[in-house]
Write a structure and sequence with these properties.
CATH class of the largest domain: Alpha Beta
Number of domains: 3
Number of helices: 8
Strand order of the largest sheet: 1-2-8-5-4-9
Distance between the termini: 44 Å
CATH superfamily of the largest domain: Translation initiation factor IF- 2, domain 3
Structural class: alpha+beta
Helix content: 25-40%
Number of strands: 21
Largest sheet: 6 strands, antiparallel, barrel
Order of helices and strands: HEEEEEEEEEHHEHEHEHEHEEEEEEEEH
CATH architecture of the largest domain: 3-Layer(aba) Sandwich
């Protein structure tokens, strides 16, 4: 930090001597300072106009993002129609979220769309080209692969709600590296997890850390297809805690309950050697032998166990469907009563990617 003031003085002097001046009549160019996704307004970028004048209605390019200036706001949040050189403004009207440091420039619509399409195509091609060499990994598998010596590096893609969060995570996560594994940030950006992010993670065997954002619907489906692990958080320290636990083998598995069906108890029978059997009518879905079951009485769960027997008349049944009667035995429970409801379900252990795609909520939040 030493000598900054002197450097600025020299820069100003050189600019004066060379008569370096911005041209307010030129098409605007500048740099993205900050970007985020704003609820109700969509992608928002704070830009610094360095040359030319940015006006409402201008078409522009930010990296691989196309936009048309829909509205602009100054540093006090007041709407403005144009931004001359050396002016920072908040811009609405982007079709995606650019990265801080991206160069922006105003051009005509056709040229802007052509350039953005080309840049996005190159990004997709680069990701697809590397897909065959990427070894996919999830946090659930990390500890076992570390013990087996199969993992030396854990690639990570970071997506966050604002650029500031991206920068904090990008600085913090590599510091968690150990002698066994190096954490490497291979990509980052602001906004929802996109299909391009999934392709990048798939190609490089990376996991995705989504901070304050969710995957787009198609991205969640692609994550399940490509078996990409997405972890979402809203608190910084929880991200580091989860990664530490994964490396130490302490990560809790993700479980999902799958509803199967329910039946109404209409009679009860005492069977020698089997205890109480519930005479049931299946009102919805199916009952499955060996599945989990909840006994619900007056809206409250009184017992949870499993169906250890299921019969249709005198014959054993593997399952009984809606509209049929059956006899059901509940393991270690003989207090079933007429009017009780039996809710049948099973519990499935999921990978993080499966949990994200099936629930619509990214993995990592339990």
């Amino acid at each position: 930090k030493k000598g900054i003031e002197k450097l600025l003085e020299i820069l100003l002097l050189v600019a004066d001597l060379r008569e370096l001046k911005a041209n307010p009549d030129a098409p605007a160019t500048g740099t993205v300072l900050e970007s985020r996704v704003d609820k109700g307004r969509g992608p928002v970028a704070t830009v610094l106009v360095q040359n030319g004048t940015l006006r409402s209605g201008d078409f522009f390019i930010c990296g691989a993002v196309f936009g048309k200036v829909r509205a602009m706001f100054d540093d006090r949040g007041r709407p403005v129609k144009e931004a001359p050189p050396s002016t920072p403004v908040e811009v609405l009207g982007l079709q995606g979220v650019p990265e801080a440091g991206d160069h922006f420039s105003v051009t005509d619509e056709a040229k802007a769309r052509h350039i953005v399409d080309y840049r996005q195509s190159k990004q997709r091609d680069a990701a697809l080209l590397a897909r065959s060499t990427g070894a996919r990994i999830t946090l659930d598998q990390l500890h076992e692969q570390l013990k087996a010596g199969e993992v030396k590096e854990l690639p990570i893609v970071i997506k966050a709600d604002v650029q500031g969060s991206v920068e904090v995570l990008s600085e913090m996560l590599p510091k968690l590296s150990t002698d066994q594994v190096k954490l490497k940030i291979i990509g980052s950006g602001v906004g929802a997890v996109s299909e391009n992010d999934i392709l990048l993670a798939s190609a490089s065997g990376a996991i995705i850390i989504a901070f304050g954002v969710r995957p787009e619907r198609k991205a969640a489906e692609l994550a399940q297809q490509e078996k990409v692990d997405i972890r979402t958080h809203n608190i910084i320290y929880e991200v580091s805690d989860e990664l530490k636990k994964a490396m130490e083998g302490l990560l809790e598995p993700v479980f999902q309950e799958n509803y199967l069906g329910r039946a109404e108890v209409r009679n009860t029978f005492r069977v020698k050697g089997s205890g109480t059997v519930a005479g049931c009518y299946v009102v919805d879905g199916i009952l499955k032998r060996e599945a989990q079951v909840r006994v619900v009485r007056d809206g409250a769960v009184v017992y949870t166990s499993k169906l250890n027997s299921l019969k249709r008349f005198k014959d054993d049944a593997g399952e009984v469907r809606t509209g049929f009667e059956c006899g059901a035995g509940i393991a270690n429970f003989n207090d079933v009563k007429v009017g009780d409801i039996l809710e049948c379900f099973n519990v499935q252990k999921l990978s993080a990617a499966e949990a994200a795609a099936q629930s619509g909520v990214p993995a990592g939040k339990k």
